[in-house]
Design goal:
Helices cover 23% and strands 22% of the residues. It has three domains: 2-48 and 201-284, Periplasmic binding protein-like II (D-Maltodextrin-Binding Protein, domain 2); 65-196, Dipeptide-binding Protein, domain 1, CATH 3.90.76; 290-330, no CATH class. The protein is globular. The protein has helices at 27-34, 110-121, 139-143, 173-176, 187-193, 249-257, 268-274, 300-306, 309-318, 321-328, and strands spanning 2-8, 16-24, 37-42, 68-70, 76-78, 81-86, 92-97, 154-158, 161-165, 210-213, 221-226, 240-245, 280-284. The strands form four sheets. The protein has a four-stranded mixed β-sheet. By secondary structure, it is of the alpha+beta class. The longest helix is centred in the middle third of the chain and has 12 residues, at 110-121.
Length: 330
């Protein structure tokens, strides 16, 4: 009997998600297991596969890699950099790259990182996450258009060494360097495809364990296939991951029951119906939510009160954050 998992992530949960481990008996399930193929759903199509312009890396984090990658415990482990060293004052990082290749077989070099960072900070690129480079020497001035990207605090002394200069020590810098935004881009490929770059899966090259196929820029289904040139390909157990946009939880569950999906999110109502199942489990899940004051409340009394600093302080002191975290966002 083949085991597959249904993941139920509650949209109002701050630190927990639900897992239902079910039995898949269909021929499709057996075929997926034998071919080492995982069939997944997603609620929205890919917006872009240009790491400089992306607003999220939930999926594409599997096709692009940076100096580090996150391990099973959520801590950064060696990625494209086999080692990283920080100076005593915490303001200079030196990364030594491993002998890695792009999905097309081209070598990944230190200059690919320099080019990528310059491109992401170029005001013409309009990267939505360019602010994450704040703390890198001259990054803020480049974003503001006050300095040239060549003044950015990143250099490539040789093909296998990247040096990053910071304006101040950044405690979370190592974790930040696991984010695909800080990964390399192949200048030759960007220039080759020009305006077509990253608009379709074939107009991109990949540095991570998988590469994308079958994405035309607007379609609702695509696949990740194993990157045969990935430096750690022996650790990649799957040959393929199929993605399909499924906007309805009910549709997703039906597809799962038919063996067309191996994992699917569940609505809160579905969770209620399935939580008594012996295979129903919960697991830790990082999810951020926050509360903020409505300074423009239409009610004059409320608006006046919330614009009073002392009242806001009193409200803050009265809030039981532990209760809100564990019960309010469930």
């Amino acid at each position: 009997m083949n085991k597959f998992k249904i993941f139920a992530t509650s949209l109002v949960t701050i630190s927990a998600a639900i897992v239902l481990v079910a039995c898949g008996n269909t021929s499709n399930s057996q075929s997926s297991r034998n071919s080492k193929t995982l069939n997944l759903s997603t609620t929205a199509p890919l917006d872009t596969i240009d790491i400089s312009k992306s607003t999220g890396y939930g999926q594409t984090g599997n096709v692009f890699e940076s100096f580090y990658r996150l391990g099973s415990n959520g801590k950064p482990t060696a990625g494209l950099a086999k080692s990283g060293f920080v100076s005593k004052n915490g303001k200079t990082w030196t990364f030594k790259l491993r002998n890695a290749k792009w999905s097309n077989g081209d070598p990944i070099t230190a200059q690919d990182f320099v080019y990528s960072w310059h491109r992401s900070l170029n005001p013409k690129t309009a990267s939505p996450y360019s602010y994450l480079f704040s703390g890198v020497k001259n990054a803020n001035q480049i974003i503001a258009g006050k300095k040239n990207s060549n003044s950015l605090g990143i250099s490539a002394p040789n093909k296998r060494t990247v040096v990053v200069k910071l304006t101040r020590p950044i405690a979370y810098f190592k974790v930040l360097m696991a984010y695909p935004l800080f990964g390399p881009q192949d200048a030759k490929v960007v220039k080759k495809y020009g305006s077509k770059y990253a608009t379709k899966s074939q107009y991109q090259v990949y540095s991570g364990p998988f590469e994308i196929t079958g994405w035309n820029g607007t379609n609702d289904s695509w696949s990740f296939v194993k990157n045969k040139n990935y430096w750690d390909k022996k650790a990649v157990k799957l040959n393929k991951i199929n993605y399909e946009v499924v906007k309805s939880n009910n549709t997703g569950y039906q597809l799962y029951q038919q063996g067309k999906l191996d994992l699917t999110p569940l609505s809160s109502e579905q969770v209620k119906n399935l939580k008594s199942n012996k295979d129903f489990k919960s697991y830790p899940y990082s999810y951020v939510r926050f509360l903020m004051y409505n300074f423009k409340d239409k009610n004059k009394v409320n608006r006046k009160a919330l614009n009073n600093r002392n009242i806001r302080l009193a409200l803050s002191l009265a809030i039981d954050r532990n209760v809100i975290t564990k019960k309010g966002f469930r």
